[in-house]
Design a protein that fits this description.
Distance between the termini of chain A: 84 Å
Number of domains of chain B: 2
Largest sheet of chain A: 5 strands, antiparallel
Low-confidence stretches of chain A: none
Order of helices and strands of chain B: HHHEHEEEEEEHHEE
Radius of gyration of chain A: 30 Å
Helix content of chain A: 40-55%
Strand order of the largest sheet of chain A: 3-2-7-1-8
CATH superfamily of the largest domain in chain B: Protein of unknown function DUF881
Number of helices of chain A: 6
CATH architecture of the largest domain in chain B: 2-Layer Sandwich
Structural class of chain B: alpha+beta
Number of domains of chain A: 3
Number of strands of chain A: 8
Low-confidence stretches of chain B: none
Structural class of chain A: alpha+beta
CATH class of the largest domain in chain B: Alpha Beta
Number of helices of chain B: 6
Strand content of chain B: 15-25%
Oligomer: heterodimer
Strand order of the largest sheet of chain B: 3-2-7-1-8
Mean pLDDT of chain B: 83
Shape of chain A: extended
Helix content of chain B: 40-55%
CATH architecture of the largest domain in chain A: 2-Layer Sandwich
Number of strands of chain B: 9
Order of helices and strands of chain A: HHHEHEEEEEEHHE
Radius of gyration of chain B: 25 Å
Mean pLDDT of chain A: 86
Largest sheet of chain B: 5 strands, antiparallel
CATH topology of the largest domain in chain B: Alpha-Beta Plaits
Chain lengths: 233, 238
């Protein structure tokens, strides 16, 4: 009698053990599936996301297409100018000019906006992070050239706080008020900043003093140092 | 007898908890992973996205081929002209700096992962995930430490790169990237590794429980930007 009870107990324990094991196993499998679900893949997107994604790829395609046409045109130019040194020089120069525009080593002008940020008495002092976020927003809205107090923002530019006193851009010390110039579509650049959730919108809500002026002809000055590289090959 | 009751109770509670867990999980999976959507419009959109993606990828390959041709053609044209050869070198070097050419060199690799441990007892769960501002600040510090080329999950940072947060994914160069974020930078490794200093941004992120890993390497490769830099408004003043 006693033996029987014992046997029943053991069977029951084993059964429960197996059941628990299975349950835990299933749980882990589920965890894995959730972990592996790629939220960046289009299979998991909803309609609105898909629409932005589509617009995104469309404009990327158009950009690539434009680049392709331009490169083809350049090849054609080289082919045609093969005989003449002077002509070739012109083509090389125009290519170099394009690179220098991207590097920020030439003065440029065009349509754009100027943002003036002043330290306000009833709000926190302007920090490097504020300028960094404004610059990021401008880039997202398609700014082609940006400067802060005439310091050109290039691909390696940093904006940092030096203590609580002042801000350094490209290693140059700058003081308020900050004049940020950006060349691009003025309406687009502005709406990125003052639209709902835009960074200037946020700044104004907490009492900071920001003015934006649109301009049809804005000059952004060149990077005023030599760009040196030591490590990239 | 008393013991038996206890055991049964404990087991019962355990089973209940496990079943509950599974049910919650099932629901989550169902909500996030609707692979096959019955919505026709969504499927059409999806097909359209894929079509444009393919067209873009084909065009990108064309561009790459055309650029190689251009390179050849340019070399051909300037063979006998040392002044032009110098300019050609400037073009090559410039392309490396702005991100239109692949670069190699010494540097560091930073990996950032969201904090998964403390999510239940956090006052603000938003503190536990990596945001666009965090990435922006890390990049800014890297530049401050002398980084010459930077990429995030294989996306090269070019002069026009903006970073935006869209839910729990981040948009860089209009491509979506998700966690873990792998930031690679070329520069003097010792100097770049200074990002780990106390009160530096990485230290602050660690304070929020974000997993941060920094490795030095003598051999970092950063790909070229897979888009194009186009200028429609800015004109050079001569």
């Amino acid at each position: 009698m006693k033996k029987d009870i014992k046997k029943g107990k053991i069977t029951m324990t084993i059964t429960i053990g197996i059941a628990c094991f299975c349950l835990v196993l299933v749980m882990f499998m589920q965890f894995k599936i959730v972990n592996e679900t790629d939220i960046t893949s289009i299979e998991n997107m909803k309609e609105a996301e898909l629409r932005t994604e589509l617009a995104n790829w469309k404009s990327k395609y158009e950009e690539a297409d434009q680049a392709y046409q331009e490169t083809q045109a350049k090849i054609q130019e080289y082919k045609e100018t093969k005989q003449s040194n002077e002509e070739t020089e012109k083509v090389v120069n125009s290519e170099l000019e394009q690179i220098n525009l991207s590097l920020g080593t030439t003065d440029v002008e065009g349509q754009g906006i100027e943002i003036i940020v002043r330290d306000s008495e009833d709000a926190e002092k302007i920090k490097a992070a504020d300028l960094l976020l404004i610059v990021n927003s401008l880039k997202l809205s398609g700014a082609e050239a940006i400067s802060i107090n005439d310091n050109r923002i290039i691909n390696t530019s940093d904006i940092v706080d030096i203590g609580n006193e002042f801000i350094k851009v490209n290693g140059e010390r700058i003081l308020a008020p900050y004049f940020i110039k950006a060349i691009g579509d003025p309406a687009y650049l502005e709406s990125g900043l003052i639209g709902n959730g835009g960074y200037v919108d946020t700044m104004r809500k907490i009492g900071q003093d920001v003015t934006i002026n649109k301009s049809n002809k804005l000059k952004v000055s060149k990077y005023n140092n030599e760009i040196k590289t030591k490590y990239i090959q | 007898m008393y013991n038996k009751k206890m055991v049964s109770c404990v087991l019962g509670v355990m089973c209940f908890a496990l079943t509950l867990g599974i049910c919650v999980q099932m629901r989550t999976v169902q909500e996030t992973n609707q692979t096959v959507s019955n919505n026709r419009q969504e499927n059409n959109l999806r097909a359209e996205v894929l079509r444009y993606k393919e067209r873009y990828e084909n065009r990108s390959r064309d561009v790459e081929r055309a650029e190689a041709d251009l390179e050849k053609e340019r070399q051909n044209s300037i063979q006998n002209n040392s002044a032009l050869q110098e300019k050609e070198e400037q073009i090559q070097q410039g392309n490396k700096i702005i991100g239109l050419a692949e670069v190699k060199g010494p540097g560091i690799k930073i990996t950032l992962k969201d904090n998964k441990k403390d999510i239940k007892n956090a006052l603000n769960p938003s503190d536990l995930v990596v945001h666009d501002e965090d990435i922006l600040s890390v990049i800014n510090e890297l530049r401050n430490a002398g980084a010459e080329a930077i990429s995030i999950n294989g996306q090269r940072i070019v002069p026009t790169t903006g970073i935006i947060c869209g839910g729990n994914i981040i948009d860089i160069n209009r491509e979506k990237v998700g966690v873990p974020f792998v930031i690679e930078a070329i520069g003097l490794p010792e100097q770049l590794a200074a990002l780990e200093r106390p009160y530096g941004y990485l230290d602050i992120l660690k304070g929020y429980g974000i997993e941060v890993k920094l490795e030095r390497s003598n051999n970092i490769t950063i790909p070229k930007y897979n888009g194009t830099l186009t200028y429609n408004y800015a004109k050079t003043i001569k």
